[in-house]
Amino acid sequence: LLGGEGLHAAAPSLGLALPRHGVLVGILDDGIAPVSELEGQVDRELSRDFGFDYEDGVRRERAGGSNTGDSNSTHGTPIAGIIAGRNDGEGIQGLAPGATLVSLRVDGNINGDRTYGLDMDKAIRYAADNEIPILNMSLGRRNADQGNPAIQSAVQYYQDQAGGLIVNSAGNDMEEGPGNWIDVTDGNMESWLFVVALADNGRTYELAGYSNTCGDAMDRCVAAIGGNITVNVDGEITGFGGTSSAAPQVSALAAMILSKWPQLSGVDAGNVILNTARDIGEALKHMAERLDMQD
């Protein structure tokens, strides 16, 4: 991964293999659809639906909170495939197929508009209470002028209770810095790891034209390729791009680290990623870090 004072490529020297111990990775998104490439990869009992629909002043829960993935899970499903698609010799395979995914659904409809991030603080606290060490959050705030105290407090709780790591996409708005940096505090900072996207030409370490930079978050920021092959809600192989596609590569790496060293926390895994990253030059100083996972 690239990061900090320069860009770095993450630690081939760690000797990582595919995780075998079912490290829990929560996905804060619009759910994970029940497709064949993810069969057996999602803990549906631990998964929860925190989203809801709101119309004309009335809040309506979905299926008693049990709807953790369906045909509307168009964003969370490809993210799940990148992290933990099955290693069965068919279709796609995730980077960490031995990980166990937990769908923490936080989407809904507010007066007819699709909305993401509903009750996010409750989902983060749930992850803390259930010792889910890694959360992939390929969602971000736009044009926020102040932090959200509920999110800030929930991340602090997640750090204190579970030593948890939130891997957060930086955003696709060509802006300076991640949108969610505004919710970082001195106390909860170690639970955040931001991810920008590199151009997916496979030849250079250039920031993708759409990607936000690391900005003020550069000491807690890495980079990964912005384009991946994964699976969609219909079970079809598909391309998926953006910082939303880059972040799950980092979540998968964190799961691999915890599989090899289960005594570590999610925060520890994030710090391992940052501290073992290889400098790849000053040209991208204010951008990010790049992932390089090798056995």
Describe this structure in words.
The chain is globular. Helix 2 runs parallel beside helix 3 (149-162) and helix 4 packs across helix 5. It is built from 5 helices and 15 strands. By secondary structure, it is α/β, with parallel strands linked by helices. The chain has a 7-stranded parallel β-sheet, with helices on both faces. It has a 4-stranded mixed β-sheet with strand order 5-4-7-8, with no helix packed on it. Strand 9 (134-137), helix 3 (149-162) and strand 10 (165-169) form a beta-alpha-beta unit. It has helices at residues 76-84, 120-129, 149-162, 243-260, 266-275, and strands spanning 7-10, 24-29, 48-49, 52-55, 58-61, 100-105, 107-110, 113-116, 134-137, 165-169, 192-198, 221-225, 227-231, 237-241, 277-281.
Q: If you compute it from the alpha carbons, what radius of gyration comes out, rounded to the nearest whole angstrom?
A: 17 Å
Which descriptor suits the 3D outline?
Answer: globular
- Largest beta-sheet characterization: 7 strands, parallel
Strand content: 15-25%
Structural class of the secondary elements? alpha/beta
Distance between the termini: 16 Å
Number of helices: 5
Strand line-up across the major sheet: 3-6-2-9-10-11-12
Low-confidence stretches are 2-13, 281-290
> Helical amount among residues, as a percent range?
10-25%
Give me the count of strands: 15
- Say what oligomer this is: single chain
* Secondary-structure element pattern, one letter each: EEEEEHEEEHEHEEEEEHHE
Quick check: average pLDDT?
87
